[in-house]
Amino acid sequence: MKILKNITKGFFIVLVLANILLWITGNTHLYKGLSDTYFQGRLKPSVDNPEIFYTRTLEAGLSKPWEISKSFGSSELSNEMKKTNSEFGTLAYLVIHKDSIVHEDYYEHYSKNTLSNSFSMAKTLLSIITGAAVKEGKVDLNASVNNYIPEFIPAKDSALKVKHLLTMTSGMNFKESYGNPFGFMAKAYYGTDLRALTSGYELEKTPGTEHSYLGGNNLLLSFLLEKATGQKVSNYCTEKIWSKLGMENDGKWILDHEDGDEKTFSGVYATARDYAKLGELYINKGNAYGEQLVDTAYVNASIVPINTLDTKGKKTDYYGYSWWLTNYEGHSIFYLRGILGQYVFCIPDKDLIIVRLGKFRSPTKSDGINPDDIWVYIKEGLSIIE
Question: How many other C-beta atoms can be found within 10 angstroms of the C-beta atom of residue 75?
C-alpha cells in the first residue's frame, strides 16, 4: 500500500511539473492538441470538430443550388473507386459537369448539408479573397509587404512582395514541421495567439528564389488583407465572395480565440457542394452569375506554374497562386487540396468539377508531388461523364 501511495504521489508531482513546464515554455496548445488527436485515438485532427474552436461565419447569400443532371444516378462506381473510398475513408464524392450534378455520394454521417474541414484548401480560398482585394485596388501584388504590415515585416526586408506570400516563395522560415507537436504548425492550429506566434521572423532567403510550402505565409497575408480592407478576413470573404456564389449553407472559419484571427492556413468548414462553387468561380474566370468577383487576369495568373525551384531543387511546375496544378491524360487541372484528402479538381476543357472529402489520403506520391489517390478520383469523374 505504501509503494502504491508513493507511485501515485510521484505521478502527481510529475503531472504538476509537466503542466508548469508547458505554461512556462508557452506550449499550452498541447492541451487542445492532445485532446483532439491522441485522446481520441487518432494521430491527426478531425474533419468534424469546429466546436472545439471559436469560429466566424461565412454567410451565404441568395442560395442557388446546383442543377441535377438528367443522367444523375445512371453511373455505378468502379471497383477501383470503391476500394479507394474504403481504404481512405471517403465521406463525399461529387461530380459536376456543365453546372449540373451528375454523381453524388455520401458516406457515414455525411449529407449534402454536412460541413467538413477544408484544412489547406483554405489557403486557396485566401488566394481568391486576395484576388477580390486586388480587383478593388486595395492590394498590389508587387508592393512590399512592409507597406501594409511593418509590425511584422521590417523595412530591411522590404524585398518581400505580396506575390511571394501567395506563391510560397517568401524566403521566410517559420520552422514548420507538421509532425512536431511543439512546432510552428501545431501551435498555429491549436494555439490562441497567431499574431504573437508569427511575429519576429525575418527573411532567410531572397524572396522569389525558392518555393517552400509554409502556412506562416498565409498568416502574414491575412494580416495584410485585414489592414488593406479594414475587415476581418471572414467578413471580407462573406461580402466579396461567399455571399455571391449561391452557396447552399453558411460556412465557418476557425479562429485563434474569441473574436480573434482566422487560421487562414486551414480550418474553413463547408459542404462538398459549396466547395465546388469555389472551383466553378475559377472555371468561369472569376465571374459568378454575371458579376466579376475576381479579375480574369488574376485568375489566369493564379493557375500558371510559378516554376521557381523548390526546396528539393525541382522546378515548381505544380503550384500557382496557392492553387495546385497537374495534368491527367492531356487534361490540364487546377485544384484545391487539404492534408486529409480534401480535393476540388477543376478540369476546364471538360467543364468538370470533382469534389472528394474524406478522412485520409494516400501516403505515397509516386510523382513526388501529388498523392496517389487523386488519380482514382479524377479518372472516375472523367469516366462518369463519358
Answer: 15
